[in-house]
Structure formats: structure tokens, C-alpha cells
Amino acid sequence: MTRPIVGIIGNHYLLNDQYPAHAGGTMNSEAVACVADCIPLVIPADPRLVSVAELLDTCDGFLLTGGRPNVHPEEYGEEVTAAHGEFDRARDAIVLPLVRACVERGQPFFGVCRGFQEVNVAMGGTLYPEIRDLPGRMNHRMPPDGTLEEKFALRHIVTVSEGGPFHGLFGATEVMTNTLHGQGIKTPGRRIVIDGYAPDGTPEATYIEGAPGFSLSVQWHPEWDAANDPVSRPLFTSFGDAVRDFAAARALPGRKSA
Fold first, then answer.
1. Would you say residue 255 lies in a domain?
2. With a cut of 50, which residues of the chain have pLDDT below it?
3. Which of 74, 102, 103, 132 could lock 139 by a disulfide, CB 3.0 to 4.6 Å apart?
């Protein structure tokens, strides 16, 4: 039986500072293929190349990946500052309406890091440009030096709500995660439920209230060592189950795409 397709939102890069490319991290594809047990398909996130409607029809679910560029502050009604960093307006133009369409259709998506922030903005929320500049907050950014293992090392606890969806997946209300982000949620969007926090109060885990499909998002990077990490594995396993259920439901005779 053919596995369902997960569209992995790619990012724009310049290879060797010259050659433009759309790409996604190998660890994203490995987590989708080996843990979620779905076909990973890297999406060039550019409205000149693909449309939201085409993506919804082609893919059964979506992994909204992390990436160096941030959501443009105009998308949540704020002015650009130096702290906002780099942007990818083409990705904004694809992913923000894609999130809203998935919520409406019940099509599964899993937001990671920038994807976590995109989901909040898509639902009308706002972001802080730099978490570490806020009083009492820790530096959540990737360590500048060290190996990949050191950069993705577990660095802080995330506390999730007792009885919530993350508690159900983890079997615990406290888990250890990595942290590699500069921005974070300022005000939650419509129907965004913040279900997990770092010790300094930074939102780390969300879902969308009343969404008919999988809508979990996390601020950390669960794709790192997803097959072995006890926190990452249930996230991707559950996501894969939701994608299979969605694919099976829309394949039923007489069933039209939402």
C-alpha cells in the first residue's frame, strides 16, 4: 500500500552564496519517512511555482519546518526592525493561507520552530522579534559553536498541561527539549491554545481549539533524532497516524476533497 504524502515546506537558500535553491533538512525527511512512515515531499514554498489548492490536493499532510528567515512583521501588523532578522515573503505567501485552509479542512499539519510561529500568525497572533531581549527570558537561540549534537542538545524543560494533547502523547507533564529560536509568540492567535511553556514563560507547544485535524505545533526541533528521542518520536508517530487517517478518509468512494 502506498504511504501517504507529507509536504515538507522547503526554504530558499543560496548555495555557495550564488546558486539559488529550495531545500529542506535531511532530518525532516528522515523523521517523516522513518518515524511518521509517510512519503516526504519537499515543497518549493513560492506562489509563482505552486498554489495552496494544488498542495492541498497533492499532499495528505504538511510539516511546517524551521528556517532562518522569520515571518514578516507586516503579516501581524508591526513595523520591521533590525531584530526581526531575515525574511522569506514567498514562504509567507504560501504557508499562512495553507495553515488556514488546513484548519478548515481538517487536513493534518505539524508546525516546528518557524512553523510554530507561522501557525500563530496565520491565526491572527503576533510575535516578539527577539525573546532574549525580554526581561527574565533566557537565550533560546542556537549555540554559535559546537557540533550538531551540541547545537541540538536538550537544554530546558517544557511543562505541558495535565490532561492536554501533549500530556497524552508524552505520558508526562514535563519533558526536556532542545531550543534553537530567536522569536516567539507575543499574543496567541484565534483558537490558539498554548499548552506548553519553557521555565521562563516562553510558549513552546500549541494546538488549535476545535480543529478537526492534527494541529499540534512546537517551538523546539523534534526532527532531531526523532527515531530515538522519547519526546520527538510520539509527536511524529501521532502526526503520521493522523495523515494516514486523512488520506484514507478522502480516498473513500464518493468522497470529494474538502
1. no
2. none
3. 132
C-alpha cell at position 128: 516578539
pLDDT tens for 191-243 read 999 999 999 999 999 999 999 999 999 999 999 999 999 999 999 999 999 99
Three-state SS across 222-258? Answer: CCCCCCCCCCHHHHHHHHHHHHHHHHHHHCCCCCCCC
What pLDDT is recorded for position 257?
52
Q: Which structural domain, as residue segments, surrounds residue 197?
A: 5-250
* Residue 112, strand partner residues: 218
Number of domains comprising the chain:
1
**What is the signed CA dihedral for 220, 63, 11, 202, rounded to 10 degrees?**
-20
**Angle of the 89-105 helix axis to the 114-122 helix axis, nearest 10:** 70
How far apart (Å, rounded) are the C-alpha atoms in residues 82 and 85? 6
